[in-house]
């Protein structure tokens, strides 16, 4: 990095810090202690450390993430409202680490290009498409339940369910997005392929987080580090995988056209939607854009779904009376137990409340960040200058004891969750996620009673996506 750029960074960082420290008497933290503390907070991902800070500083706190970079964490509802009402770009500092993996997809695009992609891809999540996914989702969940039946028989058995839900989620995603029958939940060979893809995704996310280590901030240093090498290898595998999916589909469509079969597929998948968007928009939506959006779909949809279903099951295990009430509701709606329809999902009001409460207790994406394009003034009159990266801690907001009487109290329902936040950049997959959560929980509760394993409580790791530190261990008992 040129020296004068370094100096500019330093001056800017000091300016920023000065204004941050002057921000609020009750947010003020001694520089030396918060510096060390904050690096730890990011690196070991322990939620309790974040909660300690939220408890101590009820609106916000600043921290260093590198020699020249200060972030500002907020978790007060009024601060969050002001923050979400603006159109600041995503933090370059954080999202640039995603570009080598995802390319430029919805998650990290900005401005008119983001708007163009968002308009083109939104039809991929419309009601008719989602309706057509229900059968696919139910089939994959039933496959997982079949495995659980084999493992448990009639005995009450402790199972690490996260691994199973992870595979089931990938199975659903591959089918809904690309109509890919991977059989990953049962078949040994594709199981291995997909497992390596899974570990690839997990490792990629982990490594991205490691890049927050300030020694890895600069591209050149990171590239030549062992982690950098590994990341490049993994990215290559991911890109080869998605490239093959795309090329296979393009070939299929070409063959269909050649044989005069130009009728639209009955159940269009996400790839069909992107390919027709590409056909309609020619040069403005390139093959690289296509691949980036395919990668984005896999990465944004997979860990969030595996986590949200697992946390929901865990919370219902901790709360047997609410679990039973959901089960009764689902039994009343599904009756013959063999299929689920869109309308039936709409009737699951109690179960939906439990889902929302579980998303509050454990938001799958625990924080989002933006780089201020102009100064921000919060409703209490305190301000931050342009250039600062502000992190909205969704976890902090959902667990802030200044807001909730008892933030850890589980179910019944506060029903206020900001797990899919954003006025301008909300989650494009949120309806997909709710449908999948309902289908999964309905089928699981019809067939199994779940209870916690007191010897192995769930420990969360606060990464880009919330993760279980040691899996999710639950007692499963097959219902008659
Ligand atoms: C419970 C599950 C999910 C949660 C809690 C969740 C949460 C979020 C959040 C918080 C954001 C905003 C990120 C930011 O502004 O920095 C986001 C964006 C996004 N999500 Fe989700 N998500 C979930 C499921 C999904 C699924 C299933 C998909 C796709 C299949 C998906 C695709 C995306 C995409 C593409 C974006 C970027 C949207 C844009 O900027 O236009 N998400 N999600």
From TrEMBL:
Keyword Nucleotide-binding belongs to the record: no
Pfam name, any one: p450
Subcellular location: Membrane
Gene3D superfamilies in UniProt: Cytochrome P450
Lineage: superkingdom: Eukaryota
Keyword Iron: yes
InterPro entries: Cyt_P450, Cyt_P450_E_grp-II, Cyt_P450_sf, Cytochrome_P450_Monoox
Membrane topology, from the record: Single-pass membrane protein
Cofactor section: heme
Stored SUPFAM superfamilies: Cytochrome P450
Keywords: Heme, Iron, Membrane, Metal-binding, Monooxygenase, Oxidoreductase, Transmembrane, Transmembrane helix
Listed GO CC annotations: membrane
GO MF term list: heme binding; iron ion binding; monooxygenase activity; oxidoreductase activity, acting on paired donors, with incorporation or reduction of molecular oxygen
Principal subcellular localisation of the protein: membrane
Binding positions (heme): 427
Family according to the record: Belongs to the cytochrome P450 family.
Annotated protein name in UniProt: Cytochrome P450 family 4 subfamily X member 1
């Amino acid at each position: 990095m040129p020296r004068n750029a370094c100096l500019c960074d330093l001056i800017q960082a000091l300016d920023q810090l000065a204004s941050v420290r002057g921000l609020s008497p009750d947010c003020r933290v001694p520089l030396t202690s918060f510096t060390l503390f904050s690096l730890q907070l990011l690196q070991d991902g322990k939620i309790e450390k974040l909660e300690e800070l939220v408890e101590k500083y009820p609106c916000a706190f600043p921290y260093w993430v590198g020699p020249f970079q200060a972030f500002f964490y907020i978790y007060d509802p009024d601060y969050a409202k002001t923050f979400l009402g603006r159109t600041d770009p995503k933090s370059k500092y954080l999202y640039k680490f995603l570009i080598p993996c995802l390319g430029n997809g919805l998650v990290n695009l900005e401005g008119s290009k983001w708007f163009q992609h968002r308009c083109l891809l939104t039809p991929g999540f419309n009601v008719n498409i989602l309706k057509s996914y229900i059968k696919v989702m139910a089939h994959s969940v039933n496959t997982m339940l079949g495995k659980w039946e084999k493992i448990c028989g009639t005995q009450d058995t402790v199972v690490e369910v996260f691994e199973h839900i992870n595979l089931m989620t990938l199975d659903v995603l591959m089918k809904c997005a690309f109509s890919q029958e991977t059989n990953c939940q049962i078949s040994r060979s594709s199981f291995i392929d997909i497992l390596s893809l899974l570990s690839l995704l997990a490792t990629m996310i982990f490594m991205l987080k490691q890049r927050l280590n300030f020694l890895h901030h600069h591209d050149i240093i990171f590239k030549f580090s062992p982690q950098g090498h590994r990341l490049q290898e993994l990215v290559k595998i991911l890109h080869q995988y998605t490239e093959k999916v795309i090329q296979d589909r393009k070939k299929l469509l070409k063959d269909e056209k050649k044989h005069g079969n130009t009728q639209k597929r009955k159940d269009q998948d996400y790839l069909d939607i992107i390919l027709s968007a590409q056909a309609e928009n020619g040069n403005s939506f390139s093959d690289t854009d296509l691949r980036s959006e395919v990668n984005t779909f896999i990465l944004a949809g997979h860990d969030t779904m595996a986590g949200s279903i697992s946390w929901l099951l865990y919370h219902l295990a901790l709360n047997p009376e609410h679990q039973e009430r959901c089960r009764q509701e689902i039994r009343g709606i599904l009756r013959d137990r063999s299929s689920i329809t869109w309308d039936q999902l709409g009737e699951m009001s109690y179960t939906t409340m439990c889902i929302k409460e579980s998303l509050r207790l454990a938001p799958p994406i625990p924080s989002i960040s933006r780089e201020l394009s102009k100064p921000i003034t919060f409703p209490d009159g305190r301000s931050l200058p342009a250039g600062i990266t502000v992190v909205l801690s969704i976890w902090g907001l959902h667990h802030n004891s200044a807001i909730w009487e008892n933030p850890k109290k589980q179910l019944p329902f506060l029903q206020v969750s900001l797990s899919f936040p954003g006025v301008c950049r909300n989650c494009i997959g949120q309806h997909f996620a709710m449908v999948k959560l309902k289908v999964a929980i309905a089928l699981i509760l019809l067939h199994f009673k779940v209870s916690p394993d007191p010897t192995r409580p769930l420990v969360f790791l606060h990464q880009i996506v919330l993760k279980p530190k040691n899996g999710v261990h639950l007692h499963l008992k097959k219902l008659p």
